[in-house]
Amino acid sequence: RTAALTVDPAFRIAPADRRLFGSFVEHMGRCVYGGVYEPGHPAADELGLRADVLELTRELGVSTVRYPGGNFVSGYRWEDGVGPVGDRPRRLDLAWKTIETNAFGLNEFMIWARTAGVEPMMAVNLGTRGVQEACDLLEYANHPGGTRLSDLRRKHGVEDPYGIRLWCLGNELDGPWQVGHKTAAEYGRLAAETARAMKLIDPEVSLVACGSSNRGMPTFASWEATVLEHTYEHVDYISAHTYYDPSDGDVDSILASAVDMDLFIDQVVATADHVGARLRQTRKLKISFDEWNVWYQARLQADLDRRGWVEAPALIEDDFTAVDAVVVGDLLITLLKHADRVGVACQAQLANVIAPIRTRNGGPAWRQSIFHPFALTARYARGTVLRTEPAGPEYDTKRHGSAPAISSTAVYDEETGELAVFAVNRGADELALDLDLRSLPAAAGSEHHTIAAGADPGAINTPDEPNRVVPRELDRPAVDGGRCTVRLPGRSWNLLRFT
Ligand code: AHR
What we know:
Elements (H helix, E strand, L loop, with lengths): L1 E5 L5 E4 L6 E3 L26 H10 L3 E4 L23 E3 L4 E3 L5 H11 L2 E6 L6 H12 L5 H8 L10 E4 L14 H18 L4 E4 L12 H10 L5 E8 L6 H4 L2 H22 L7 E9 L4 H8 L3 E2 L10 H16 L4 E7 L8 E3 L5 E3 L3 H10 L3 E3 L7 E4 L3 E4 L1 E8 L4 E8 L5 E6 L8 E8 L19 E2 L9 E6 L3 E7 L1
Parallel strand pairs: 1-21, 3-4, 3-13, 4-7, 6-12, 7-8, 8-9, 9-10, 10-11, 11-13
Antiparallel strand pairs: 2-16, 5-6, 14-15, 16-19, 17-18, 19-20, 20-25, 21-24, 22-23, 22-25
The structure holds alpha-L-arabinofuranose.
The site of alpha-L-arabinofuranose (AHR) has 11 residues, from loops.
C-alpha cells in the first residue's frame, strides 16, 4: 500500500504558534495536589513544587498552561487561595466531590509557571460568580498598585503585577453538569459584560468565550452563534473542547478521532465567521482548543458516586497505550493543520488526570505513552505550517465511516532550512509514503522517529517499565533528486526530519 505527499514551502498556512502546545492544570484529582505540588516529597522545593514534575514539564515543551479549571473553576473563590496558607479556608468542591484545602492558589501557580517557563492562561468563575469577582481577580493579578486588591497582592509578597494576558470567560457553561450551567443567551450576556469590564481594567488582555463542550452537544453551533452574537466584538477566541474515548476497544475508530476534531474546527470557524458577517465584523476570531485529549470516560461517575468527601482523590488517572499515543500525535497534526484559525490549544491535563505525566504520592514521576508525540511535535514544529494534501488509501471505521489512512502536516523553518513532516498511518498495514520535496532542493533526510502500535497496541509505561512506549528511530530517509520513500508502520505516528 502506498501514499504520496508533496511539500512545497509556497503553500503556507500560518506560523506554528507556540500556544498550540499548551496544557492544563486543574484543581482536580491529583493534578495539583500530588502532581505539580506535594510538600514533603523528596523532590519538592521549600514551597512544595515537585522538581521532577517541573523537569518533565519542560521536557514536554509545554508553552501555555490553563488554570485553575475546568469544572472546578465554576464554583471557585479565587481569594480563598491567596494570603497566609494557615488562614485559607477548606471548601467543598462540588465539581469533583472533593475537599479543597486551598493550600495551592494563584500565587503558588504563578511561581510554578515561572519556574516551568510557561505562560499562564487564567479562567474566571462565571458559574456561581459574575462580573465583579472576575474584575477583582484581574485587579489583584494585573493592576500595578495603589488600590485595595493590587495592594493586597503586594502585601502577599508580589510587588509587580503579573500581566496575565490570556483569560477564559468561564468553563463549559453549555454543560448541564456545570455548576451554574446557563443557556447560551444567559451566558452570552454575562460573558460580554464581564469582557467589557475586564478590558476596562486591562486593555491588553485576550479573552476566550466558552464554546461547546464537544461537537456532540445538543446545542452545538447554535450555542456558539448565540454566544458570539453577544460577545464577538469583546473577545479574541471562542473555545472548543473534545475528548475521544477508547473504552469500547474499537481501535480503527479511535485512530480516526482526528477526523472528528477536523470537522469540529471547520464547523466552529464557519459558525464564527457567519456571526462575524452578520455583525459586519472584519476581524476574524480564533479558536482556543483549550481542552483536548484521549479519555477513558466510563469510570468517572462510578468513582464519584462510590466515595464521600476527601482531599485530592486519584481521579481519571488513565493509563495511556501505544494506540492512544498515535491518536494524540494525530490530534496535534490536526491542530497544526488549522494553525490559521486555532490560536491556542491545551492538552488536558498535565499531571495524573488524563495526563502525559504521572506521579505517585511520595514516589516517582514518569512519562506516559502520550508524552512522546507531544514532546517531539512541540520541539520540532517550528516555523511555518505548510499545507500538505496526502493521497492514499481509506479504511473503514464504525464511528467515522470511511477515513483516510494517512494524515499529515509539515512545518518549515525558513531560517534554519529545517523541515519536519508529521504523518500518521491509521491503518493496520504498513504504508510506503512517497514524498516529493523537489521544492526544497537542499533537503536531505536526517531522522525518522516512529511510535508504532501495531505489535503491542495495549502497551503502557509504568514506573517499573517506563520505556515500553517510546519513539524508535528507523532508517534515515534517503532523498534522491528531491524524492524520498519512507515506510510508515501500521498504526503509527511518525516524525520525519529533513535538514
Ligand atoms: O479535564 C477534565 C474536565 O473535562 C474539565 O474539568 C471539564 O472542563 C471537562 O468536562
